[in-house]
Amino acid sequence: MTNLAGLILLSLTAASLGTSPHPLVNKSTPQIIAYYGYPAEVHLVTTDDGYILELHRIPHGIKEAQNSTRPRPPILLQHCLLCSSAEFVMNTPDKALAYLLADSGYDVWMGNVRGNTYSKNHVSLSPRQKEFWQFSWAEMGYYDLPAFIDYILSKTQAEDLYYVGFSMGTTIFWAMMNDRPEYNQKVRFMVGLGPVAYVGNAKGPLARASPRVAMIESLAKFFGKYEFLSFGFLMDKILSFACDERLFTSALCRNILFKMTGANREQLNEEFLPVLLSNTPAGTSIWTVTHYFQEMISGNFQKYDYGENLNLEKYNSKYPPKYNLSKVEVPVALFSSENDWLAAPKDVEQLRHELPNVVYHQVVADPMFTHLDFVWAKDADQLVYKYVLKILSVF
Predict the structure, then answer these.
(1) What residues contact residue 255 under an 8 Å CB cut-off, 6+ apart?
(2) Taking burial as the number of CB atoms within 10 A of a residue's CB, which of 193, 308, 342, 344 is the most buried?
(3) Selected catalytic residue, list 60, 79, 122, 371
(4) Three-state DSSP class for 307?
């Protein structure tokens, strides 16, 4: 029996025995926020190329009245590859970053880039069309992130905002500043959690798959499959049962997770595991993943490689242009870890060296801290977030 088939069978058995999952399983980001008594808002933003994206907002903390005159600076939280806004709220309010920021006086906004669970609409294209999925994180940096920033500043009438990116949320930030450097004036300060630009030293299953990037793209084209890892309602329900900490099948969920991102059992919040896995993966395009694969092979931080002919058409060059990190003028704080398979220490060091305005860099004290621990760890509040709040207060 395969792992997946076994997971399905065991989860259905658990369901038939009446096992109750965590109350937040299969709840949307706004529903999770509301569950804890915080105000939740949903905003729709249309990009210049027609994608309709969903922004989630916690306008103020739980103890603060909506009509308070206290100024609340806006802050945008941007998720990782295959993630969504849910990454920042899937823990208790004393632990999750979004609530901590809201209770510290910030107006919290959480973006959802094109193609994930919340952003599958377009003014003219359908997700059933391949044209909808012909994007990578390069387009997220050029279109999605500027659209978020402009909308938030217009809505709040603020001159600039704070930005916290996790993993791909940092990648698209660097890409935006390369292509649209005017946005340096719209961001007051940037925090990078598990920051990713170079990925030549990444390890784990994704890194091992990177040499097969051409085959992956060819198979996707042959089978007409352009979306990557969006499980949908049925699989989310299955995972909500099978990954419940009270069932022995939860060990399988942990092992699958550890094989993808590295093991740190001590920091895994097993109570929230079914919640985490019913929200993640949230889906993206094949090109978004293969863009990272291309960089793992080349060792460069560069635009998407379409092949020589299309590169000449798009870039007037046989090779994709490299991103110029010196264009990131915003002051930056980086938080990295020694056991991060995807934001490897050597790659983070190269990033830090090339960014012109890194004002703070902290390596997480826990030597076993992994990539997803930046948003999922039980003690992320003490190991990371308290320092994030402190550095934000300075700027």
Answers:
(1) none
(2) 193
(3) 371
(4) coil
Number of residues that make up the chain? 395
For tokens 């952003």, name the residue: 119
Catalytic residue among 11, 85, 136, 167: 167
Distance CA 195, CA 347 (A): 9
d(CA 92, CA 167): 22
E strand spans, the chain = 41-46, 51-58, 74-78, 107-111, 121-122, 161-166, 187-193, 227-230, 282-285, 332-336, 358-363
CA-based radius of gyration for the chain: 20
Residue 167 is a catalytic residue: yes
Range 3-394 classified under CATH 3.40.50.1820: yes
Q: Count other C-beta atoms under 10 Å from residue 235's C-beta.
A: 17
Backbone phi and psi for residue 316, each to the nearest 5 degrees, phi listed first: 60, 35
68 is catalytic: no
Contact assessment for residue 167 and residue 80, using Cβ atoms and an 8 Å cutoff:
yes
Q: What is the pLDDT along the chain (395 residues), one digit of tens a residue?
A: 334 343 333 343 344 444 556 889 889 999 999 999 999 999 999 999 999 999 999 999 997 765 566 789 999 999 999 899 999 999 999 999 999 999 999 999 999 999 999 999 999 999 999 999 999 999 999 999 999 999 999 999 999 999 999 999 999 999 999 999 999 999 999 999 999 999 999 987 777 777 767 776 666 664 557 887 655 544 444 444 445 444 444 454 555 555 666 668 788 877 887 888 788 888 899 999 999 999 999 999 999 999 999 999 999 999 999 999 999 999 999 999 999 999 999 999 999 999 999 999 999 999 999 999 999 999 999 999 999 999 999 99
Residues contacting residue 296 through CB under 8 Å, at least 6 positions apart: 199, 200, 202, 206, 207, 210
Instruction: Give the C-alpha separation, 22 to 30, whole Å.
Output: 17
Contact (CB, 8 A) for 204 and 371: no
